[in-house]
Specification:
Blueprint lengths: L11 H10 L7 H4 L2 E3 L4 E6 L26 E6 L2 E8 L1 H12 L5 H33 L1 E2 L16 E2 L7 E3 L14 H14 L6 E5 H8 L2 H7 L4 E2 L2 E2 L6 H10 L4 E5 L3 E4 L5 E4 L11 E5 L6 E5 L2 H4 L6 E5 L2 E8 L4 E13 L7 E4 L9
Parallel strand pairs: 1-15, 7-19, 8-11
Antiparallel strand pairs: 2-3, 4-18, 5-6, 8-14, 9-10, 12-13, 14-19, 15-18, 16-17, 17-18
């Protein structure tokens, strides 16, 4: 490990200034699991710690107050994992960098892309993994690390199960598929879920689905009939697939939750460096199944712990941070190369998962993760 070869353009101060000023693409995960610092690299989540009000009893005077049981609370604990990636500037990249610097009028954009491109990639890569983890957890209550989803890291023998109760898992009356839009009954399914939620003392205010599930929802004949009184386009009432605003207006009129569409993509890179773009809402088989009902958008916290390299920095390394993500830069010899690494220790804690309803929209018999 040697000092960065880009040290003339890049030092701790201007790297930190760059990261402070850099605005990256909007992410969904902080709305559901905002960052929360912890001094430990373990977590303990108490599931069921939030419950409904339990009514006191009406009793006669001079009678002892009735004893009520405490709400049953389950515990999920584990280690906060490390999330890491690095990028390498090869000899060819470094030669290009030297050529650009030697020009009488250097092509500044290309030069900056070489200097800071790997920094951006590492920040965005760490955030992409957080986005993937959150939406895998939200969509099915599980996270599975496989050779496909985590080619360069840990492969879990079992799913990481956040503990979604069986009573909170619902199935559709008719499978939601665009091929059967005339017979699907999404509104009936919403009514069924809301009834089941009411029996559990849960009051959902939001319905989460991804873009492809929304497209299946909006073309259903039942949905078209349901939104018909609100389907005004240019002052003319038309029976057509609604936009999100019209669908939510119709749902609100019945006291049902509003729909939020999760429309995001991330990319996997396998051991052969083949990159594949995926929807993080999909299940392990790549199927679009789940519609999720939430009381609040904030489900829990994204716990992030200390990073050993930050507290014990190698003297050759330039370090700076973007939020909880530590960026490190250094070089190597034989062959000459420049490295950039992004790292954080983080994992979602979800104490309110027992307040969530999950509809498997592609099954009429058994809820399948």
């Amino acid at each position: 490990m040697e000092f960065s070869l880009l040290s003339k353009e890049l030092n701790k101060k201007n790297l930190q200034s760059y990261l402070n000023a850099r605005i990256y693409d909007k992410l969904y995960w902080p709305a559901f699991f905002p960052l929360k610092s912890t001094p430990y690299l373990t977590f303990e989540t108490l599931i069921g710690s939030k419950g409904n009000r339990v009514a006191a009893d009406v009793v006669a005077y001079d009678v002892s107050a009735p004893l009520k049981t405490r709400k049953t609370v389950s515990k999920l604990s584990g280690e906060i994992p490390s999330i890491r990636m690095k990028k390498k500037m090869t000899e060819t990249d470094l030669n290009t960098y030297n050529i650009l610097k030697a020009m009488a009028k250097p092509e500044q954009k290309s030069l900056l892309d070489l200097v800071f491109g790997d920094v951006d990639a590492c920040v965005e890569g760490a955030n992409a993994r957080l986005e993937w983890m959150v939406f895998q957890a939200l969509s099915k209550g599980l996270i599975t690390l496989s050779k496909t989803t985590n080619a360069g890291g840990v492969i879990t023998e079992e799913d990481i199960d956040f503990g979604l109760p069986a009573a909170n898992k619902q199935v559709a009356a008719v499978s939601w598929t665009t091929a059967a839009y005339a017979t699907t009954t999404p509104i009936t399914d919403i009514e069924t879920v809301m009834t089941a939620a009411g029996d559990l003392g849960i009051k959902p205010r939001y319905i989460l689905m991804n873009k492809s599930k929304w497209l299946a929802f909006r073309v259903s004949t039942q949905v078209l009939d349901f939104v018909a009184p609100y389907a005004l386009y240019g002052g003319v009432r038309k029976k057509r697939a609604p936009n999100l605003s019209i669908a939510n207006e119709a749902l609100a009129s019945e006291g049902y939750p509003m729909i939020i569409i999760i429309d995001t993509r991330i990319s996997y890179e396998d051991v052969n460096h083949t990159i594949t773009s995926v929807d993080p809402w999909l299940d392990a088989a790549g199927a679009d199944r789940f519609v999720v009902f939430l009381e609040d958008l904030k489900c829990g916290d994204m716990l992030h712990g200390p990073i050993a390299e930050e507290t014990n920095p190698p003297k050759q390394v330039i370090q700076a941070k973007k939020g909880p993500i530590l960026i490190s830069k250094w070089s190597d010899v034989d062959p000459v190369a420049e490295y950039t690494k992004g790292e954080l220790n983080a994992f979602p804690s979800w104490p309110t998962i027992d307040r969530v309803m999950n509809l498997d929209s592609e099954s009429t018999t058994t809820w399948n993760a």
